[in-house]
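Per-record layout

source: Neogemmobacter tilapiae
name: Flavin reductase
length: 194
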Amino acid sequence: MFYRPEDGHGLPRNPFTAIVAPRPIGWISTRGSIGANLAPYSFFNAVAYEPPQVMFASTGAKDSWRNIRETGVFCVNIVGEDQFHAMSETSASVAPEVDEFALAHVAMAECQAIACPRVADAPAALECRMTQIIELAGKNNFLILGQVVGVHLRDDCLSDGRLDARKYRPVARMGYMDYAVIRDLVELPRPDER
């Protein structure tokens, strides 16, 4: 099968969301003048190592986007298997004044380097200062870039000085309404490290 996106795919659901998979989920927390917000984004990833930087994309001028434009900060909370259902609850379309932390019964903690809430029991959380918001092609598509200025790691997710994904089992987006939970790891050193 071949199709041009502008011509449509002719399938019951858009396959584009399932092609690039698995995708990590950035559970983005913000606070603005209306209050706290917590929302998952599967168009998310780390993009640079030194200084550490992340990005996520938003379709629509959502509350996260508005709060980041207002404050210049956000926090990326990593979703483990224990947070899977709460993360899904925070994807609901609700009014801007609704606090998704309260809605999904997610414990909130304050960040340390920025004025922003974070998910208290997230396996890891990245406190970020927004560096750019780029308007992408299409209607209301935005790319938000941020520099990581603080990192939280849950102590019980560390093993031998490493963040151990087997301890928290990251959740990834597969497309459509499908997700994966990472339980198995395979180590493969690079050729120059063997």
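summary: The longest strand covers residues 124-136. The domain at 24-193 is CATH 2.30.110.10 (Pnp Oxidase; Chain A).
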